[in-house]
Amino acid sequence: MKSRRAKVLLTGIGGGGHGEQILKALRLGELEYDIVGTDMSDLCANRNLVNKFVQLPRASHPAYLDELRSLAQSEKCVAVFHGSEPEMAVLSRARAALEADGLYVPVNPPTVLEICQDKTKTMAHLASCGLPAPSFMEVRALPDLDQWETLPAILKPSVGGGGSANVFIVQSREELLAFSRYLLSTCEAFIIQEYIGTSDDEYTVGVLFGSDGAFLNSIAIRRVINNALTIRTQVPNRSGRSDLGSRLVISTGISQGHVADWPDVRSACEKIAGSLSPRAPINVQCRVVNGAVVPFEINPRFSGTTSLRAMAGYNEPDILVRRDVYGENIPVRFPYKEMTILRGLQEHSIG
């Protein structure tokens, strides 16, 4: 029997994003959660998994914030969790107003989002802090490519591109030109990154901070990238670089793998995350290359592995509510379990 009940509002519960992950984690929490779940679509697979479902407009709609605040107040929620990146941006900007409503909002400040939601700014931030990063360059026009020599490389939009969308591997100048021409037809700018390491040494790492900026803990999952759920793109390695493996691989946003201590990986990612002065979870995507932890992306939010972590006893949304709402003393570097967690698909009947 759980000792305390808490009513929370959770947005973006459909679509397989981090909102669904938070939902699963809350159901595993030490508190009993009454969850008011929202989504922009009425055709939401998880609507029967929350205590109350409400359809809200898109985060870009002028009425979105007012409707969300009204719902949270009328339902007497103690916290609001964002479940999508567009909603994260709105809640980050409105954090002061939401806190004035008496709501706890675990979201990073706009200054953190500005860096992490622009991949070029992310890499520039790492470089300015003297932290490891792949070679990179922002491209705004095809002549910019004359300055780039390193192949193979990764091309991806500087802004957007969640779930590894519009991400390409190039191994020749011809491929570089072709995919660059395509990307510039769809976005204002993109980033070229040096392709680093192998998919066998890829990690997703969460670093947890409270609303006061205090460091709480970190967790690393060594990814198992072996199927259609976890591989976005893979191509034979034609670069002549045997250190990169037989195939060059881009993972999806769906992670699975081995939860273990991985102390060197966690320590490096704690330093990376701390450089941002966050006030909520940070997730670092990285590979270990020649013994060095090299990040290639940072997500300033709850992770796509939030529920996996909760299964191991590292339940970020539950811990933050207990600490930041109810004042529970959460020990720094609280223990959690080592395990291997794999993923599949689950079907839902909604009526």
Task: Explain what this protein looks like in three dimensions.
This protein has helices spanning 18-27, 64-74, 85-93, 95-100, 110-116, 119-128, 173-186, 263-274, 306-311, 316-325; strands at residues 5-10, 32-39, 52-55, 79-81, 136-139, 153-157, 168-170, 190-194, 202-209, 215-223, 231-236, 247-251, 257-260, 282-289, 292-299, 339-341. The model has no long low-confidence stretch (mean pLDDT 95). The chain is globular and about 60 Å long. The longest helix has 14 residues, at 173-186. The protein has a 6-stranded antiparallel sheet with strand order 15-14-9-10-13-16. The protein has a 4-stranded parallel sheet with strand order 3-2-1-4, with helices on one face. It has 10 helices and 16 strands. The protein has 3 domains: 5-105, Rossmann fold (3-Layer(aba) Sandwich), CATH 3.40.50.20; 133-194, Dna Ligase, domain 1; 197-341, ATP-grasp fold, B domain (D-amino Acid Aminotransferase, Chain A, domain 1, 2-Layer Sandwich), CATH 3.30.470.20. Strand 1 (5-10), helix 1 (18-27) and strand 2 form a beta-alpha-beta unit. Helix content is 27%, strand content 25%. It has 351 residues and is α+β, with helices and mostly antiparallel strands.
